[in-house]
Q: What sequence folds into this?
């Protein structure tokens, strides 16, 4: 679960990524090398016995010579075999000295007792040797194995004092039994380390995800399986119920997802889309945000993240993480609104007004008529100079309230300058309707108002441009509505003017060209 059952799993956090190692560290275990060691030592013992028989060397007379030669040869051979993938001269000097000391000591000490060991004692001695192999810690693996295996060589030399068939039988038994014991010890160590590893990582995993996610589940796309791994209290379930993933998605979209987010949810998390996204790339990640019904019946924003498990072959195994992001989403939306809104009038600011109108005009396919209305307060500068800016701000606040009451929620209302306001009326059924609306607006402005405890009468000049007739873009509508506004002020203010009623063919630099 950036990534569960992957090399690493990353979960998004506010400031940084939380990284959990969720793959066991492989314990170095080379069965091939163990077999080579056992085979090589066995072959050496047989060769040594044959040579001693040919040379007719009296073993009991040359114990020291035989032990020293055996120790030197075993140490050299051990270096070559235990460093199978390295040249002998690449061995660390300190480790080499330790091996030489312990290997030689073990071989010499055991060799001194060869003359007093018969077949039965050798068998007992070998059983004790196997017991040591079974219980000695394997932490310092190379040194311990060198010591024990070379000790085994010296012990086995005593066996050659018995008959050759008996020696061969015992050597073969030594070879397989020693190899098997070492194999079990290594395997047990491997399983124990991985058990501890997974236990620790599961606790870390639960601790991190407990604060980040409210639900975790597994999806097998090839078999259409959905397995819930964690309930709302973040308890991993032992009786994991398996459902059909396609059925779960359909029920969720039908009963819990907000109607406005349903199509997005189904398109993103449907099996076909997930299979297409994750089939060829294990590193892909899918994240979607949508609203769903909470336990209290209210819609809350949640985030769903899909990650693919690695090393699953042709099977596409995904892990889903559901996180409640309602608070952060509401905070984000509030910050966006604050960036879009004029703080004084609570209307859209200039940049947002222009962007919203442009987006609507570019995406509009209704074929209806729209009106661009520009409003300017008459003599607003003298009001500010006479009564102060605090008084002027009060007038702008009252006018913004009048605009909100007279126009629809779907219309775009914004402040684009000091005392310049814009209303974009969408889908008006006739120019006469716009005429009546603007006439009513002028009447509301003429009424006496009380600003900060002082009565005042204000007027306004209004210019109107009709979309498609007077322009098709924001810039064209703004320019023509501004021309009509300028003409309304020139004619005495306190009135409105439609650009199409001017009888003007061209307007440039605020001068009429007839």
A:
């Amino acid at each position: 679960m950036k990534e569960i059952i992957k090399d690493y799993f990353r979960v998004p956090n506010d400031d940084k990524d939380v990284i959990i190692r969720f793959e066991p560290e492989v314990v170095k275990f080379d069965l091939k090398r163990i077999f080579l060691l056992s085979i090589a030592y066995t072959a050496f013992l047989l060769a040594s016995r044959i040579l001693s028989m040919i040379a007719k060397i009296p073993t009991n007379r040359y114990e020291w010579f035989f032990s020293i030669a055996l120790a030197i040869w075993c140490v050299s051979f051990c270096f070559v075999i235990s460093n199978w993938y390295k040249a002998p001269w690449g061995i660390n000097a300190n480790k080499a000295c330790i091996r030489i000391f312990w290997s030689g000591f073990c071989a010499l000490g055991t060799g001194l007792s060869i003359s007093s060991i018969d077949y039965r004692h050798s068998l007992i001695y070998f059983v004790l040797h196997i017991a040591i192999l079974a219980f000695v810690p394997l932490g310092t693996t190379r040194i311990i194995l060198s010591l024990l295996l070379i000790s085994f060589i010296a012990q086995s030399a005593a066996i050659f004092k018995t008959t050759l068939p008996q020696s061969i039988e015992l050597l073969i038994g030594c070879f397989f039994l020693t190899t098997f014991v070492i194999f079990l010890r290594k395997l047990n160590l491997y399983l124990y380390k991985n058990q501890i590893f997974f236990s620790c990582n599961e606790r870390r995993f639960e601790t991190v995800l407990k604060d980040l996610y409210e639900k975790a589940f597994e999806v097998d796309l090839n078999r259409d399986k959905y397995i819930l791994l964690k309930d709302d209290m973040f308890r991993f379930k032992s009786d994991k119920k398996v459902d059909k993933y396609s059925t779960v998605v359909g029920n969720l979209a039908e009963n819990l997802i907000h109607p406005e987010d349903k199509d997005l949810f189904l398109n993103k998390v449907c099996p076909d889309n997930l299979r297409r996204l994750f089939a060829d790339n294990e590193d892909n990640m899918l994240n979607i945000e949508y609203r769903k019904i909470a336990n209290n019946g209210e819609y809350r924003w949640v985030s769903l993240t899909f990650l693919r498990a690695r090393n699953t072959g042709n099977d596409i195994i995904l892990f889903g993480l559901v996180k409640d992001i309602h608070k952060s989403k509401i905070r984000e939306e509030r910050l966006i609104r604050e960036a879009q809104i004029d703080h004084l009038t609570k209307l859209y600011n200039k940049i947002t007004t222009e962007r919203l109108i442009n987006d609507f005009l570019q995406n509009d396919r209704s074929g209806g008529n729209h009106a661009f209305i520009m409003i300017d307060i008459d003599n607003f500068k003298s009001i500010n100079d006479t009564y102060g800016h605090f008084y002027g701000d009060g007038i702008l606040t009252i006018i913004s309230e009048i605009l909100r009451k007279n126009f629809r929620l779907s219309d775009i209302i914004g402040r684009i300058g000091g005392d310049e306001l814009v209303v974009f009326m969408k889908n008006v059924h006739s120019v006469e309707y716009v005429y009546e609306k603007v006439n009513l607006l002028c009447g509301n402005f003429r009424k006496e108002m009380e600003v900060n405890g002082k009565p005042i009468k204000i007027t306004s000049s209004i210019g109107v441009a009709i979309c498609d007739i007077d322009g098709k873009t924001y810039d064209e509508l703004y320019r023509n509505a501004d021309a009509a506004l300028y003409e309304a002020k020139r004619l005495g203010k306190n009135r409105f003017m439609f650009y199409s009623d001017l009888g003007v063919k061209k307007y440039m630099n605020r001068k009429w060209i007839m």
Observations:
- The longest strand covers residues 299-308.
- The radius of gyration is 44 Å.
- The domain at 213-331 is CATH 3.30.450.20 (Beta-Lactamase).
